[in-house]
Design goal:
The chain is α+β, with helices and mostly antiparallel strands. The protein is built from four helices and three strands; from the N terminus they run ααβββαα.
Length: 99
């Protein structure tokens, strides 16, 4: 029996919350100096392969694309803005990143 979309969404959300709770103590233990060092070290680097990210502004949304693995990354809130786009606008956004 295949789970419904709502069940899959619920399970994904619960898994995210569980992982977030597990990571919270570690995040609290890192002091602000170390957080700043890590932020500087990883700023505009691909979380998947470590290569530089190329920032592209598209209709007020800063999309980060990896020059190495071609991954596309969005900052907090940007996915919601992409999801709110009409299909035509979404197609145009994706066409920017096609090879």
């Amino acid at each position: 029996m295949k789970p419904s979309e709502r069940e899959e969404e619920y399970m994904a959300r619960m898994e995210f919350e569980r992982k977030k709770r597990l990571a919270a103590p570690k995040s609290r233990q890192i002091d602000e100096t170390e957080k700043g060092r890590l932020r500087e070290l990883h700023y505009l680097k691909c979380p998947k392969c470590g290569m530089d990210l190329i920032q592209i502004d598209y209709k007020g949304i800063e999309v980060d694309k990896c020059g190495g693995c071609d991954g596309i990354w969005l900052d907090a809130g940007e996915l919601d803005r992409v999801a709110d786009m009409e299909k035509g606008g979404l197609d145009k956004l994706f066409s920017v990143f096609r090879r």
